[in-house]
Write a structure and sequence with these properties.
Length: 491
């Protein structure tokens, strides 16, 4: 057994020797177990799921803009040979992300918070930088190598094996350093790429102040998604400013543009925050105006809504519920499809009605699996799960509301699961059905004044002054010149 650890090291060394590739950005040899063909395949596989999860923003002007700027930037990048795709997804979250193979996504939430084409271009260049420098492929390769080493250690030492989970978590912390280095390299590439297509990258630095203030206003528990996975915005503001000045000096770049007014006019009318037509939570009830249904949500439960499903769970994570469209032409077929897909077997089923709607209630449990039975003698099995599912026919659809927990906790959560499903009903409240979203509106300041006075003139509630200041990338005390364009939010 003592020979296994050296063998695992030898295996890792062999993998390392055979899996080094030249980084397109640095020209250096990096550990890489993922080929370019695999990167492209990963992106192609991920894209339909991302689009299905969020949906695309129905704004041809903005979609065309991100495609045009993205293709211009891709052409001057270190990997112009890839087939890039750029999309704006329908999420209020302030985020931008890239997946391997050339796929880049911006949310409408982040689009609303940019205040110029230059800010947008800098972040776009940053995300393209993750792709050109093969950061995702490198992280996956490093993770693979680490697991080879750790598995060798766990096999060789029963003591180490007891702490396998902790070691894996430690490896994640070890490579967090590399992740942050990747982010800084992508900042450099964002400066380079945006400058090459004619934008002043110093404005990219300004956006990090918006991120920082957004995080401070939201509180630690609700920091913007882009900030939560990236280095401290305050530090990046100074660094990116310096990088922009250095690159402009080195390349003699002149006549660089900001594109503030052109960008603001382009986002006029963009939906801001949650879009009610996709469903909204209010006073512990979820309403879906387009599909015209409603159901209760337990107080204190965490809640998430997406185009594919609504899901919710208590904060301790001991249970979860979801609502989604079921597949099947009948209640029985829909139930069987769900059970098969999730490897569950029915324990009890019953035809019922839910507020006058035909329905099928099913209690199910985890189906026995041969692999689990084989491994039972070697390791402790995970606690078996049990579920209560309602399949409800309404409006030409079959809705599946399912609550899941462990078999041991099933009786504890049964009444909650049942109460939510049995209170699914038709939405008839016209105020809820006709609820309009908030949208970004661009106004022209008539008279020079501090931003706080300008917002007051446009009837912005005082409790939203700071929110609007962040949205505009300004301070409330900043003096706004006459004829300046600013953002406000209206219904």
């Amino acid at each position: 057994m003592k020979k296994l650890l050296p063998c695992s090291l030898a295996t890792a060394a062999l993998l390392l020797f055979n899996s080094c590739a030249t980084n397109p950005v640095t020209g250096k040899r990096d550990i890489n177990f993922v080929s370019e063909e695999q990167e492209v395949a990963m992106g192609m596989q991920a894209d339909p799921g991302i689009v299905a999860q969020f949906g695309l923003v129905e704004n041809p002007t903005l979609q065309r803009f991100i495609q045009e700027k993205g293709q211009q930037m891709a052409a001057v990048s270190h990997r112009p040979n890839l087939k890039y795709e750029f999309k704006i997804v329908d999420s209020p979250v302030l985020n931008a992300f890239a997946v391997p193979g050339g796929y880049v996504y911006f949310t409408r939430g982040i689009m609303a918070h940019f205040n110029s084409e230059a800010q947008f271009a800098g972040v776009l260049g940053h995300e393209i930088g993750h792709i050109t420098a093969r950061h995702s492929a490198q992280q996956q390769s490093k993770s693979t190598l680490t697991q080879v080493l750790l598995m060798g250690g766990m096999i060789a030492s029963p003591t180490l094996a007891q702490y396998g989970n902790e070691l894996m978590q430690g490896a994640g912390l070890l490579f967090l350093k590399f992740g942050r280095d990747d982010e800084r390299q992508s900042d450099e590439l964002g400066v380079e790429y945006s400058t090459k297509i004619g934008y002043d990258a110093k404005h990219m630095a300004d956006f990090f102040q918006t991120l920082q203030r957004q995080g401070e206003q939201a509180g630690q528990g609700e920091i913007p998604e882009w900030q939560s996975t990236h280095p401290n915005p305050a530090n990046r503001y100074s660094t990116v400013h310096q990088l922009a000045e250095q690159f402009q000096k080195q390349t003699n770049a002149t006549n660089l543009k900001e594109g503030r007014d052109s960008y603001l006019r382009m986002i006029d009318g963009l939906i801001y925050g949650e879009d009610p037509k996709q469903g909204f939570l209010e006073n512990n009830t979820f309403y879906h105006p387009e599909l015209k249904f409603q159901f209760p949500v337990p107080a204190g439960w965490q809640f998430q809504n997406s185009p594919q499903q609504v899901q919710m769970a208590p904060k301790d994570g001991k249970a979860m519920m979801f609502l989604r469209l079921a597949q099947g032409t009948s209640l029985e077929a829909a139930a069987q499809k769900m059970l098969t897909d999730n490897q569950l077997q029915a324990v009890e089923s019953k035809q019922v009605t839910v507020n006058g709607l035909p329905a099928l209630a099913v209690i199910s449990q985890q189906a026995p699996q041969q692999q689990q039975q084989q491994q039972q003698a070697q390791q402790q099995q995970a606690a078996p799960i049990q579920a209560l599912s309602y399949f409800i026919q309404y409006g030409g659809n079959i809705y599946n509301i399912t609550g899941v927990t462990t078999a041991a906790d099933f009786n504890t959560y049964f009444q909650t699961f049942s109460g939510i499903a049995q209170n699914f009903r038709q939405l008839t409240d016209q105020e809820k059905i006709n609820r309009k979203p908030e949208v970004v509106r661009i106004k022209t300041v008539k008279t020079a004044a501090p931003l706080s006075q300008v917002l007051q003139a446009y009837n912005v509630p005082s409790k939203r002054f700071e929110e609007m200041a962040i949205l505009n990338g300004m301070l409330l005390t900043d003096r706004v010149a006459a004829n300046t364009l600013i953002k406000v939010v209206e219904k």
